[in-house]
Write a structure and sequence with these properties.
Blueprint: E1 11-15, H1 19-30, E2 34-38, H2 42-50, E3 54-55, E4 66-71, H3 84-91, E5 95-97, H4 99-108, E6 117-122, H5 127-140, E7 144-149, E8 165-170, H6 173-176, E9 186-189, H7 197-200, H8 203-211, E10 219-223, H9 227-235, E11 240-243, E12 254-257, E13 260-263, E14 266-269, H10 278-294, H11 299-308, E15 317-322, E16 325-329, H12 336-344, E17 349-354, E18 372-378, H13 382-389, E19 394-398, H14 400-412, E20 418-422, H15 435-448, E21 452-453
Parallel strand pairs: 1-2, 1-4, 2-3, 4-5, 6-8, 6-9, 7-8, 9-10, 10-11, 11-12, 16-20, 17-18, 17-20, 18-19
Antiparallel strand pairs: 12-13, 13-14, 15-16, 15-21
């Protein structure tokens, strides 16, 4: 845990007692603050009381006595309308911040020579893989690395700071909205496409939240393939572009293509990196390469780390092989833009898609439908996706087990090397609690067919 100083003996309101809220309360208490907790859930309040925290109904509390409100990223700060705690905090002149800001202030309070380095990653798609990849490369280089934030462990639950450590943290737009002094050594924006617009009041608000990662950052790495990413890059004076579309200059930027990247006049061959297929993973590798080099890791060591990366569960993860058919789990692809990257990675695939559709469904993927040998549709979106696919061969399978079995049989019948790809292009909540559960259902269905697990192949 990382104790948060600066609030010794002062009452701090904490609303939302999920992973980040409880962790923030523990870190504040460890730093000497007096956290006052509240949640709409009775069970969450009971858990807080069991840990010895003061639980107080914030709807009737005296807000003039609070030094800050620590708001769960799940509660709206501004849109569709501010959470009621935000209204009470602002009326009382109480600042509203989140766990990433507490982390920033904890590091800021350390003497300059005792501060660890911080790498922060955000973006609409690819941020989890980029975070895990950077963490892996730095660990292979022998550094003390702590990976967390919006991926895995909450940031304040990571080990206490030491001067030699590097924190590699994934940061969401919700978390960034609650920061003011967050100052990563390396800040990364992978890409931007429409998402969470209801929480940010539209695209402009969403982009503004993402761009906050660069406010106090020393090294700024920006994905410039999308219009909004390019606009953010153009607004910065010393950023480094990471692109799959425009070759880098001899001295600035990184150019990524499927299987290789070019930086500082050098070409890096990634064809042996089995866990980094496709152009989008080459871009992830480019971010990792640029980050590691900025932190002083030798070029050769960085490449060795990239080539040995084992991959991330539910993100272009090969889960098994049966005969000449390979099964790839990309359950994390919860929108069309993410599914696009997966479909682009294979010349042909037997595509399992569907779930709870997001705005636009799969209409924007029509240019990739010729790569789909046949689609197998599940969940609420099966009907709308079928309509969007038009003449592209498809069938409505309904559930995962039926889709996996049918996709395998169709792929095996070709007599050639084939890929069955789960890349849903939709949320999981119609049939599963989260994308992880959906990916595990895919894995279970694959293994039930008798496929050899990837770890054993």
């Amino acid at each position: 845990m990382i104790p948060v100083p600066g609030f010794e003996g002062r009452r701090i309101a904490v609303f939302g007692l999920g992973r980040s809220g409880l962790t923030a309360a523990r870190a504040l208490r460890a730093g000497g603050a007096l956290p006052i907790l509240w949640d709409d859930s009775v069970s969450s309040r009971m858990q807080a009381e069991a840990e010895g925290f003061a639980v107080e109904d914030l709807t009737t509390a005296d807000w003039s006595g609070f030094a800050a409100l620590i708001l769960s990223p799940g509660a709206p700060l501004t849109h569709p309308k501010p959470h009621w705690t935000v209204g009470k905090a602002k009326a009382a002149g109480v600042e509203v911040i989140g766990d990433i800001e507490l982390f920033a202030r904890a590091l800021e309070a350390l003497p300059a020579g005792k501060r660890p380095r911080v790498v922060a990653i955000t973006g609409t798609n690819g941020k989890s893989t980029t975070t895990a990849l950077i963490g892996w490369v730095l660990k292979q280089a022998g550094l003390t690395v702590h990976v967390g934030g919006n991926i895995g462990i909450g940031v304040l639950a990571l080990p206490e700071p030491t001067p030699e450590a590097v924190y590699v943290i994934e940061v969401s737009s919700y978390q960034l909205d609650l920061t003011t002094r967050f100052a990563p050594d390396v800040a990364i924006l992978t890409n931007i496409s429409p998402d969470h617009l209801d929480r940010h009041g539209g695209m402009e608000g969403y982009v503004k939240a993402k761009a906050r990662i660069f406010t106090h950052a020393e090294v700024q790495l920006v994905g410039t393939d999308e219009t909004w990413g390019r606009k953010i890059f153009d607004s910065l004076s010393n950023a480094t572009p990471i692109s799959t579309a425009e070759p880098a200059s001899p001295t600035r930027g990184v150019f990524a293509r499927a299987g290789w990247l070019e930086a500082n006049g050098e070409v890096v061959d990634l064809t042996a990196a089995r866990s980094l297929p496709g152009r989008h993973n080459a871009q992830n590798a480019a971010f990792a390469w640029a980050t590691a080099r900025a932190l002083g890791i030798p070029h050769k060591t960085v490449i060795e780390g990239l080539l040995s990366f084992p991959g991330l569960a539910h993100r272009m993860e090969t889960v098994g092989q049966l005969g000449r058919v390979r099964f790839v789990n990309d359950s994390k692809a919860t929108n069309a833009d993410a599914a696009r990257q997966a479909l682009l990675s294979y010349d042909r695939s037997f595509w399992i898609a569907g779930g709870r559709a997001k705005a636009g469904g799969i209409d924007d993927l029509d240019d990739l439908f010729p790569r789909v040998v046949e689609a197998f549709l599940i969940g609420e979106a099966a009907g709308p996706f079928a309509a969007a696919l038009g003449d592209t061969p498809h069938r409505i399978s309904g559930d995962m087990q039926t889709a996996v079995k049918a996709a395998y049989e169709a792929a095996a019948a070709t007599g050639r090397d084939e890929v069955v790809l789960l890349s849903p292009a939709a949320a999981s909540f119609d049939q599963y609690p989260d994308f992880e559960a959906r990916g595990e259902a895919f894995r279970a269905a694959v293994l039930a067919l008798g496929a050899t697990p990837a770890s054993a192949s």
